[in-house]
Task: structure prediction
Amino acid sequence: MGLPKFSYIKPKNLKEASALLIEYGDTARVMAGGTDLLIRLRHCAITPQYVIGLSGLKELESIHYSNESGLVIGALARLNQVAEHADVRERFPALAHAASITATVQIRNMGTVVGNICNAAPSADTATPLLAYDAEVVVVHPGGERTIPIDSFFRGPGLTALEAGELVKELRITVPPRSAGSDYQKLSARSKVDIAAVGVSALVVPDDQGRLARVRIAMGAVAPVPLRAHRAEKILENQAPSDELVRESARAAADECSPISDVRADGAYRRRMVEVLAERALKNSIQMAEENKAGCEA
Ligand SMILES: Cc1cc2nc3c(=O)[nH]c(=O)nc-3n(C[C@H](O)[C@H](O)[C@H](O)COP(=O)(O)OP(=O)(O)OC[C@H]3O[C@@H](n4cnc5c(N)ncnc54)[C@H](O)[C@@H]3O)c2cc1C
Result:
């Protein structure tokens, strides 16, 4: 199956890309790595007259990290770059792990993290760790820039908070304290190279008294958008963690999702698996936090 006809445009910068989006409106689509977009084009799920390719914008390929300014992931940083980046692996292990098990190595060498979230699939692997780390999405529009908390970025399957003429420039994440622990758990019908049937990320930040000062639980593929389990987080927040509380929190997370049945899994099974994966992700995060805290004190 060939590709439908379209004009391919390479803007010189994001501002020009944004102006082109305004000029061509619904007849134009943005392309980063193309791993999602080209498949949709090939299947004629979309038939744009213009494809605005970002591949020439080298400045968007970089990943910057510093303790002070945090992590900045450019719109063209590939999944593999993120998975292999030493600072991402050390300080944002749930994100590095999620990126490392997204798709195949070939797709990870082409596909971007920003494309993964702009595609807005409820199952997007990098969405839940980005929610757990409170990432911000920096967006360019003809008049300048704005920042969208990732919690308000997803609006429905395939829908984001991006408005006409807007493109994502980068993702920004503040570095969690050294004592934080985080984890990503993915369940899919096949053990490898498969879209998640359920994905859960957790982050915990302990305080000096051994209580959990910050708790994040984010779930994917179990609602129209990747989402936080706010009620489940509250059960653990400001508490000393125990197996019982972790189980109660995981059960609450399962209550907060609204999974459908589809080719990948039955809705009831998905809900049950949220409970299992949330418990696992929380326990792993708490254990990592204990080890990190011991490391800080040594
Ligand atoms: C075989 C295969 C297996 C896959 N497995 C997985 C998997 O296991 N898990 C998973 O999560 N995904 C998977 N995917 C989906 C895909 O690879 C990822 O979503 C990838 O990260 C998309 O990035 P991209 O750069 O290729 O995006 P593109 O295809 O270029 O774009 C995707 C969407 O985002 C928009 N977009 C891209 N960049 C921007 C920007 N800067 N600003 C605004 N809009 C933008 C595009 O217009 C398009 O709508 C798989 C895909 C394939 C083909």
